[in-house]
Amino acid sequence: MLKTINQRIFLPAFVSPLEEKNQKGSKKQFARPNLDLLQPLRQWLDKIEIQNQKLAKFIAKLIPAQCPFERDIMLFGRKIAHIPPMCKLNPLYNELVYLRFRALCYLVDQCGEDIQSYC
Length: 119
Hints:
With 119 residues, the protein is an alpha+beta fold. 30% of the residues lie in helices and 19% in strands. Helix 2 crosses helix 3.
């Protein structure tokens, strides 16, 4: 909730509401959201078992090793700006990276394949 001079603006979808608790003074703490709509998808991604070489190769090729949006902007050979990686803004980033890691481990451990081409 944002307070302006004349009215209050509620932004529950974007900002976690503040909880006021009177524990040892009047400290404000951030409340954790109770509802995670992506939790079923996170659990599904974590439960995917890699038992097929084709699936492991597909996942390793599909999920990039590093963020494709990170860039250095160069002008006359000098770096003038840097666009940071935006992948960590993806709410499923950790699950996708772990899935890719499991696929690469399967290719190395079970198939004996060299994975340098995927890195």
